[in-house]
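pinned: reference chain
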Amino acid sequence: MGGPNGAPLKAVRAFYALTLDELRTARTTGLRATPFEAAFLRAAAVGTDEPPAP
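pinned: its structure tokens
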């Protein structure tokens, strides 16, 4: 999450409805995501409005 090759923090926070403390913890320790969630977050990182294919 975050950084030049990671999902934008704003998208991660909105998708998972995380508080700032939860987001900080997820960024520090990692965030487990299903393949669909990971695809959604990658799409958000590049600005794609289309949902990922199942």
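why pinned: The mean pLDDT is 76. The helical segments are 9-16, 20-29, 35-46.
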